[in-house]
Amino acid sequence: MKIKLFIVLLFTFVMTGCTQILTTFSEPNITGYVVDNSDESVLIVSNQPDDYSSTGGIEEFYDAVIASNAPDNVEVGDYVEAWYDGGIDQSYPAQATIGTLSILPNEQPEGADLTESEALKKALSQYSSEDHPLVVNSISYNDDQNTWSIVLENQSDDVEYSHEVLDE
Questions:
Q1: By three-state DSSP, how is residue 131 classified?
Q2: 109: cis peptide before it, omega within 30°?
Q3: 2: phi then psi, degrees, rounded to nearest 5
C-alpha cells in the first residue's frame, strides 16, 4: 500500500512540474505588428511599451525583433504572436528565428472596406526600411469620414507620424 501511495505522489509531483514548465513557455516571446518584411525575415514591433525608468532607462521602450523563418502568408500590417526557436541576439532590433507564429484576428469595423491590417499596410508603405523600427501607437476607423487614423512613432528619434488612410 505504501508503495502505491509513493508512486501516486511521485507521479503527481512529476506532472505538476511538467505543467509549470509548459505554462512558462506558453507565453509568446513578442506580440506586435509586422512593420516590414523581406524574403528572409519580418520585423515585428510590440505595441505595448515596457517601462525601464525605475532603473534609469527610458519610460516607453518597445520590443522589436527581426525574425527569420516566418511563414509565407505573413504580411506587413498583420498583428502577430511569435515564439522563438533557440537563442536571441540582443541588438536593437533583436534577431531571432521563429519557431511558431500566429496571425491574430483582424478587425474590420462595421461599414469599413479595409481591415485594420490593410489600412496599416497602406500607411507603412510610405516608409523605407531605414525608417524602422516604427511603433504603431494607434489605429482607429472614422466612419463619418470613411478614413483610418493611424499614428506611428519612430523609436529611434521619438518622432510621431499621423496618417489618414482612405477606406478604399
A1: helix
A2: no
A3: -65, -35
Q: Is the dihedral of CA 64, 162, 49, 24 positive or negative?
A: negative
Specify the 3-state DSSP secondary structure of 37: strand
Q: How many residues does the chain have?
A: 168
Separation between Cα atoms, residue 72 and residue 54, nearest integer Å:
40
The three cell numbers locating residue 113: 472596406
Taking 90 as the threshold, does the pLDDT of residue 129 lie above it?
Answer: no
Pairing of strands 30-37, 79-89: antiparallel
Cβ contacts of residue 57 below 8 Å, gap of 6+?
none
How many domains, the chain?
A: 1
Q: Tell me whether residue 3 is in a domain.
A: no
pLDDT single digits (tens) 76-121? 999 999 999 999 999 999 999 999 999 999 989 999 999 999 999 9
pLDDT digits (tens, 9 = 90+) for 35-87: 999 988 999 999 999 999 999 998 999 999 999 999 999 999 999 999 999 99
Cis peptide before 49 (omega within 30 of 0): no
- pTM of the entire predicted model: 0.82
CATH number at residue 105: 2.40.50.140
